[in-house]
Amino acid sequence: MTLKTTELPRLNLTNPDPKALAAEILQALKYRVGKDATVATREDWLTAAIKVVRDRIVDRWHESTKEAYEAGAKRVYYLSLEFLIGRLMRDAFSNLGVMDAMREALATLGVDLDVIAALEPDAALGNGGLGRLAACFMESMATVGVPAHGYGIRYANGMFRQEIHDGWQVELPETWLDHGNPWEFERRERSFEVGFGGTVESVTSKDGRLERHVWKPHDRLLAVAYDTPVVGWRGNRVNTLRLWSGMPIDPILLDAFNAGDHIGALRESNKADALSRVLYPADSSEAGQELRLRQEYFFSTASLQDIIQRHLSQYGDLLTLPDKAAIHLNDTHPAIAVTELMRLLMDVHLLDFDTAWDISKRTFAYTNHTLLPEALESWAVPLFERLLPRHMQIIYAINAEILLEARASDQFNGEEISRISLIQENGERRVRMGNLAFAGSHSINGVSALHTELMKETVFADLHRLYPDRINNKTNGITPRRWLFQSNPGLTTLIREAIGERFLDDIDALTELDRFAEDASFREQFASVKRANKERLAALIMERQGIRIDPSALFDIQIKRIHEYKRQLLNIIEAVALYDQIRSHPERDWMPRVKFFGGKAAPSYHNAKLIIKLANDVARVINRDPAVRGLLKVVFVPNYNVSTAEIMVPAADLSEQISTAGMEASGTGNMKFALNGALTIGTLDGANVEIKECVGDENIFIFGLTADEVAERRSNGYTPRSAIEGSPELSQALAAISSGVFSPDDRNRYRDLMDGLYQHDWFMVAADFDAYADAQRQVDAVWRDSPDWYARAIRNVARTGWFSSDRTIRQYANEIWNVPA
Prior knowledge:
By secondary structure, this protein is an alpha/beta fold. 50% of the residues lie in helices and 15% in strands. Keywords: Allosteric enzyme, Carbohydrate metabolism, Cytoplasm, Glycosyltransferase, Pyridoxal phosphate, Transferase.
């Protein structure tokens, strides 16, 4: 019997006519979501709208892939443990040019695009600046036409969802994948085996010569690919973000299950699941360290196997790999890829060591994101050798090559050679992943001018002397599509009306806005846009936290990962000092101010979590004190993420970038704030240096010690007690915090934290306090003169187009990857 089928009408993939789009949405709702419009939920409408636009993206995705293949184009492969992509709906709609048409189409169906867009969960694939930078880079690579794949892990729960209970951070699973991800495509056919542990055997020829090594892992599992299309501006190109999910080879041990061992029967499934469950498992335990190393190898080997398979299918010869593939290591997390590529080339594809090493060095490039020694990953040799025995052999072989080269150069003493070594010998023997990434790459870049120079002088000083041509600078950038056009549509419209539309495609055209800084009418319109953004943030805070704030107050915002070097503590202490001054001198003309904080602390980072509690304790006291008369409020915003940033950044008047000089590699929050018309208060650290050069000294508030001065104080025996005792405001604030004024339920809660500032103050909080407080009073003085403030804010917008990730990616493409852009 022949079944009669009904042919569905083809979706119109090119016509942005709202009526046609509305019909497509209804069709997607019915046939792809399985709902009728009369019973569809808001989540159903969201899925249907995404599917309709995703179809258009897929068309361009296939075209982009085919174009690159037929042209034999060199591809970029960007390996990153984090991709903090946030919500994708607005990004895709805007970049494809269908935002207005989709808004109108949905409206005809009784659906508000903004309402359903807010339902899309943030993809929990990152933690902070590193992951957001990777997301900006992926979008910019598609925008400027660089064929690229991003590779990472498809975390089911990501970092964690932060809740604040009685002022304390509480970590909960981030369940962003509970209802599926309408943007992704499972690629079960792109599955690769991943092994751990086991033994290494040598294979010799009949005449006794060593031919190759064979690694026989004890544990084996599969890495399964999930692809998300990444669309560039105006649909110029669509690239691929490929994320790996762990899957057992044998999901269930049936014999064990039937024998009654129900838990043991699922052992292999649980092992695989753990690899793609949580971002950055706590590494305070040996088990946590092992899981993190497993994660890093898991995604690195899957990505390299995928890259090699694609290359061989097209070109058939791995000797040409460096000519057709640029593999970029985003920080040290994927550094194990250096040894894994060597293993694949030698043990699987039978190349000799010298050839494999030459191919690897010409293929890999490495971006360093930190000068903190503890953040340059290292792994205990016994752990590494147990999990990856063949890789440990390869590391010893690479190390011998490097150390022999260093000795042959006659420019290093024994101590310097030991610092070059891939193995840390003093104390516990550890594998230095930063040194491995450096040695195995032809290019090593910093992410701001200052950071790059400090790399040469500090963490990589000896390797830089050995390989003086490798280190270069690529100052970070942000995508203006996400961080201006989408997050601040009011300002985008205002700019378009003033200077035309060229800046939408060439962000450098923002410089034309500079002349409007002295235009009184434009300043008023600019202030009106800022006020609307602040009202939106105030409404959000009221809705989520029940705190009423005045949009006419100065919005002073510090949102970033909670870490002592980022000095949220300095900001909180200054808030306490300001609180004391407002109460002691009510006759002064104080400027109303709201201090916002947001960010997550690593679960095992005690002091960072204590700083969050302090911020909330200080907020509780200040916000309830009638003596303050509403002149100062403190707000800690829970679960800071990309979507929250998209509301907070456009609302900021003052951007806090106050890290200890020499410790922040670059920062990208500083760029986002400046592009949205916030003035920066900051140290000469990271990209603050370049922002100052771009916007001008008069349009930024710089304070505090320089990186050289910080280093000098540390080396000359800095005594923080004298700095504290010489500052009445600081000493009073520390005494209040230490004595329990803000923690009446536990008067000793902050005693050790405050005593630490007296004893060592590694992050120079006391040393910089007076300069910071003075800079804040300068902020008050400029804020009091609102025309001057907004003129400076407009100049920040006009002069920060250079910090576009398009510019950064073009520099990577031309100077590192050797691909056209």
